[in-house]
Amino acid sequence: MPELPEVETLRRELTKAVKAKTVKDFWTDWPKNVKPSASTVKTKIKGKIILDIRRRAKILIIKLSGGNFLLIHLKLTGQLIYQPKKLPATSYKLIAGGHPQKGGLDNLPNKFTHYIFSFSDGAKLFFNDLRKFGWVKLVSKLQADKLVSDFGIEPFTRDFTLKKFTEILQRYPNRKIKQILLDQTLISGLGNIYCDESCFAAKILPTRIARMLKEQEIKRLFLVIPKILKLAIDKKGTSADTYVQLDGSQGGMIPYLKVYGRQKQKCKRCRGLIHKIKLNGRGTHFCNSCQH
DNA sequence: GTGTTTGTTATCAA
DNA sequence: CTTGATAACAAACA
């Protein structure tokens, strides 16, 4: 699922692909998740130039000429796939049955394509979403600024300090550590994969209560979070589910995952067994031999 | 037909 | 105010 590294990978690729391009049109067959409305978005982004693309937490913020911002959230199963130039008309037939994981440029749009942005040079950006939880929003600068301030600390900014990280844990002393890491209003960008991976790297069980963590453990966790996210960005993200890069290819992070999706396998660090449990309704992976 | 998968928000309970 | 539990959203897969 798209978390910080996946969204950041897409942001970088998207910047290279569409910055300075002019939006020609917008299409959707799922207007429910387009705000304020599909027709408003269509009308208001036509002819606008992509000035910049930023990211806040797991949201892409596309700055358009004219002062508005286009926000995209991929939620669980969203894909953004970019097609540089026009293919023969026959390639645009709606093709049913293609598994979204297969991605690819040659069979788009497919049955999971719910939004298409087209550009004046003929390029297209496909937003596919198997579960249809993802959304598109057009907002003013004021609304975009509010969104930015509503989220917690970004792990790659100066704001992410050991002091602030410690304060967060102290503010919610009775929460399990994973629950704090997952809370986007406290720390932004971590989802299920990188929470579990961060806890493993810090040798801390995700079930630990925040107030019980020792100073050294908090520090280990603090240091390991940006490290893991950086590695995941270097590898262009984790394609565990439907996530693919902007060109439709898979991310390369899976071989570097230590616990996520490795239940019943041997721990890469201590040869213990990786367990999977439910924690606050989430699948949670850990090694109970070397995480404490 | 059932359980599983998960980001986010809403709602209700203690 | 904190926390936990549950549902909702939607759809595929085993």
UniProtKB/TrEMBL annotation:
Catalytic activity: 2'-deoxyribonucleotide-(2'-deoxyribose 5'-phosphate)-2'-deoxyribonucleotide-DNA = a 3'-end 2'-deoxyribonucleotide-(2,3-dehydro-2,3-deoxyribose 5'-phosphate)-DNA + a 5'-end 5'-phospho-2'-deoxyribonucleoside-DNA + H(+); Hydrolysis of DNA containing ring-opened 7-methylguanine residues, releasing 2,6-diamino-4-hydroxy-5-(N-methyl)formamidopyrimidine
An example Gene Ontology molecular-function term: zinc ion binding
Xref: SUPFAM superfamilies: Glucocorticoid receptor-like (DNA-binding domain), N-terminal domain of MutM-like DNA repair proteins, S13-like H2TH domain
One GO BP annotation of this record: base-excision repair
UniProt keyword Signal, yes or no: no
A Pfam family that the UniProt record links to this protein: zf-FPG_IleRS
The entry's keywords: DNA damage, DNA repair, DNA-binding, Glycosidase, Hydrolase, Lyase, Metal-binding, Multifunctional enzyme, Zinc, Zinc-finger
InterPro entries: FPG_cat, FPG_Glyclase, FPG_N, H2TH_FPG, Ribosomal_uS13-like_H2TH, Znf_DNA_glyclase/AP_lyase, Znf_FPG/IleRS
Span of domain FPG-type: 258-292
NCBIfam families registered for this protein in UniProt: fpg, PRK01103.1
Family the UniProt entry places it in: Belongs to the FPG family.
Protein name per the record: DNA-formamidopyrimidine glycosylase
Species assigned in the record: Candidatus Buchananbacteria bacterium RIFCSPHIGHO2_01_FULL_44_11
